[in-house]
Amino acid sequence: MDLGLNGRVFVVTGGSDGLGYATAKSLLSEGARVAICGRDTRRLDDAAEKLRAVGGDVLSVPADVTRAEDLEALVTTTVDRWGRLDGIVNAAGVHTGNRFESISDDEWIADYELKFLAAVRGIRFALPHLRKTAGAVVNVLSTGARAPGKRGMPSAPLRAAGLSMTKALATEVGGDGVRINAMLVGVIRSGQIVRPAVEAGQDVDEYLDHLARKLGVPLGRIGEPQEFGDTAAFLLSPRAGYVTGTAVHVDGGLSPVI
Ligand SMILES: NC(=O)c1ccc[n+]([C@@H]2O[C@H](COP(=O)([O-])OP(=O)(O)OC[C@H]3O[C@@H](n4cnc5c(N)ncnc54)[C@H](OP(=O)(O)O)[C@@H]3O)[C@@H](O)[C@H]2O)c1
Questions:
Q1: Confidence (pLDDT) at 56
Q2: Which strands sit side by side in the sheet containing 179-185, from one edge to the other?
Q3: Domains observed in the chain
Q4: DSSP class of residue 65?
Q5: Per-residue pLDDT tens for 55-98?
Q6: Which tens digits make up the pLDDT trace of 155-208?
Q7: Residue 154, preceding bond cis, omega within 30 degrees?
Q8: Taking burial as the number of CB atoms within 10 A of a residue's CB, which of 15, 44, 200, 214 is the most buried?
Q9: Is 142 helix (H, G, I), strand (E, B) or coil?
Q10: Ligand 1, closest atom to CA 40?
Q11: pLDDT tens for residues 111-130?
Q12: Ligand 1 centroid distance, CA of 36 (Å)
């Protein structure tokens, strides 16, 4: 199926690794042009090089999404380069989960700025452009948004806020033709997921198999980033033109709720 993305332009935050990188790759393989960002410029440039090898136009913009000026520059640079914007994927982030009483105010605020406010700001900067193209937004959240678990904080409550924002904003901008959706991730192979195994010198595939068994993932395995990227590309495409204000679980059936 042709997703109809040829020539379209997307911003993917956190595109230098994991789910953001996989999304950029899927979009490029459909003929889209993609701007990615991250803080580590070396990793960002390496990722951009690898993505260019997939074919297509890639822009790498060093940016910390917790800084409003960086996000604004990311969107502006992308539109200056290609003259349009068809979508933004808010994928930058890190896993956080700790005992409630051990989390300081500063940690709550930092996680809020990274997981919620960054998406709000990114969308705010993108919206004037998305209105012109009937564009789309994908907010990358986690299954914890609907099914918070033990040691799910600060992340889970902030993911729930992201889910609520996704729905509320979809109702507000639907009349302009702009679609806003969320993706609720279970466990998918990415930099942050494999890091403990890499640091312990453990075989990554064995570690992921063990993790899937321990968690009881119904599909019996951890997800692959491209499975995420392809779903994101579909949601961003005109093929999903009647899909808005909703959340798609990409979790191998792990979430206990629908
Ligand atoms: N993979 C999973 O199983 C899973 C599950 C649930 C939720 N998620 C969520 O999905 C999102 C993506 O995770 P991932 O697994 O793809 O992680 P990852 O492989 O560690 O990649 C994270 C990406 O985000 C970037 N990033 C982090 N903080 C940033 C900041 N302040 N400004 C700009 N870029 C930043 C990183 O680059 P730099 O570090 O260089 O900035 C990197 O490109 C996160 O919000 C994560 O919590 C993932």
A1: 87
A2: 58-62, 33-38, 9-13, 87-90, 136-142, 179-185, 247-250
A3: 9-188+225-247 (3.40.50.720), 190-222 (no CATH)
A4: T
A5: 889 999 999 999 999 999 999 999 999 999 999 999 999 999 99
A6: 999 999 999 999 999 999 999 999 999 999 999 999 999 999 999 999 999 999
A7: yes
A8: 15
A9: strand
A10: 40
A11: 999 999 999 999 999 999 99
A12: 12
CA nearest to 73, candidates 60, 90, 57:
60
DSSP 238: G
Residue tagged 């899937």 (tokens): 212
Q: Is 64 near ligand 1, meaning CB less than 6 Å away?
A: yes
The length of the chain, given as a count of residues: 258
56 lines ligand 1 (CB under 6 A): no
Which tokens go with 77?
A: 């640079």
**Do 187 and 227 contact (CB within 8 A), yes or no?**
no
C-alpha of residue 192 to centroid of ligand 1, in Å: 7
Of 185, 226, 249, best ligand 1 pocket probe by most atoms within 8 Å of the beta carbon: 185
Q: 159: burial class by Cβ within 10 Å (0-12, 13-18, 19+)?
A: buried
Q: Whose CA is nearest to atom 25 of ligand 1?
A: 14
Query: Which residue puts its alpha carbon closest to atom 48 of ligand 1?
Result: 185
**What ranges make up the beta strands (E) of the chain?**
9-13, 33-38, 58-62, 87-90, 136-142, 179-185, 247-250
Q: For residue 94, how far is its CA from the centre of ligand 1 (angstroms)? A: 5
* Cα(14) to centroid(ligand 1), Å: 6
